[in-house]
Amino acid sequence: MLIRKAPEFRYSQITPRDVYFNRRTFLAAGTAAIGALATSNSLFAGEKLSGVSKSPLSTDEKPTPFDLITHYNNFYEFGSDKEDPAANSGNFRTSPWTMKVEGEVGKPKVFDLDALFKIAPLEERIYRHRCVERWSMVIPWVGFPLNALLKQVEPTSKAKYVAFESYYDKKQMPKARGTGIEFPYVEGLRLDEAMHPLTLLVVGLYGEKLPNQDGAPIRLVVPWKYGFKSIKSLVRIRLVEKQPPTAWNLSAPNEYGFYSNVNPEVDHPRWSQAKERRLPELSSRNTVKFNGYGDQVAKLYTGMDLRKNY
Ligand SMILES: Nc1nc2c(c(=O)[nH]1)N[C@H]1C(S)=C(S)[C@@H](COP(=O)(O)O)O[C@H]1N2
Ligand SMILES: [Mo]
Predict the structure, then answer these.
(1) Which structural domains are found in the chain, ordered by start?
(2) Residues whose beta carbon lies within 6 Å of some atom of ligand 1
(3) Under a CB-based contact definition with an 8 Å cutoff, are residues 95 and 193 in contact?
(4) Which of 221, 200, 192, 219 is nearest to 298 (CA)?
(5) Which residues contact 142 (CB under 8 A, 6 or more apart)?
């Protein structure tokens, strides 16, 4: 079963509409037009976040335009084409919402929607984002380090890994079936990867609450790993003793391993990982190991064979 298309860019996928589509025309059109295009939830998504500080961990590269970040997505629950998440997630209900944190912890907790935005002070972190399909973006996320949350729940000495689970509801996500992966979408990190200061829980984008297609109301972002590790719309975080299953590894173990570090030296079985396209640019650039975060994270993998542990 072919579950992910070989990423030969169809140029029709990145049309001038996506690239140059100007958000201001949207906003200038006023509430009537917005109402016609979106539901109350998308309005909620546009809400500005306050008290956001700028993080020194940001890249100074130029952020990708908002409309490309929100109209060129992978969120298979809403379909497998890049335009599907924006087109099909407008009615996705992200309120009320709860995210449970449980397992090998001293203080398990359930966070409601309001609580999710108050776990820790919000920071803007401009990160590089590199998909295994060889496109990349620069995204001004708003969030806080996952380690701030993990410290609150007090992992026990048995906690070695962190397992993440996305929301799934067949009724709200009828397009998920047939995309070839199992739902709910699950991911995992080793505890030290999860505790790393770069590992972010994200609640916003460009200073506003996350649009549904980018993983509202809360998602993970692990900038030195391929985009698929950055699981969206989280409902459960579980501290565990054993390495947890991950969605892409479950569907294609020969193509996707547990670690999934960005690595130009290790080809995907169906294509090279040496280069990438920084959207909306048309030309390719060389991919940098650990997506350019090697100085901060390479030490997590000393002594490991990253060809075996792909
Ligand atoms: N729940 C869920 N999370 C997911 C995915 C998905 O299909 N479902 N796709 C992953 C992949 S393959 C990528 S590249 C990123 C894309 O994030 P973006 O659309 O915000 O750029 O989300 C990741 N997280
Ligand atoms: Mo991806």
Answers:
(1) 11-301 (3.90.420.10)
(2) 73-77, 129, 131, 166, 185, 214-215, 227-228, 230-233
(3) no
(4) 192
(5) 49, 52, 122, 123, 124, 125, 202, 203, 204, 205, 207, 208
Reading the block at residue 117, the tokens are 């935005």
CA torsion through residues 60, 64, 69, 70, sign: positive
Q: Which atom of ligand 1 is nearest to the CA of 69?
A: 21
What protein residues have CB closer than 5 angstroms to ion ligand 2? Answer: 74, 131, 227-228
Can you tell me the distance from the alpha carbon of 90 to that of 70, in angstroms, rounded to the nearest whole number?
A: 12
| Cα 106 to ligand 1 centre (Å) | 30
- Ligand 1: atom nearest CA of 85 is 19
DSSP secondary structure string, 2-27? Answer: --S---PPPGGGS-HHHHH--HHHHH
Stated length of the chain: 310
Alpha-carbon dihedral 59, 293, 7, 188, rounded to 10 degrees: -120
Q: How far is the CA of 137 from the centre of ligand 2 (A)?
A: 12
Residue of 241, 231, 218, 244 whose CA lies nearest to 105: 241
The H helix count followed by the E strand count for the chain is 11, 13
pLDDT, tens only, 219-251: 999 999 999 999 999 999 999 999 999 999 999
Distance between CA atoms of residues 97 and 231, nearest Å: 16
Which residues in the chain belong to E strands, given as ranges? 53-54, 98-103, 109-112, 123-130, 135-145, 161-166, 186-190, 200-205, 208-209, 219-221, 234-240, 275-278, 284-286
Residues of the chain with pLDDT under 70: 1-2, 6, 8-45
pTM: 0.91
> What ligand has the least distance to the C-alpha of 181?
1
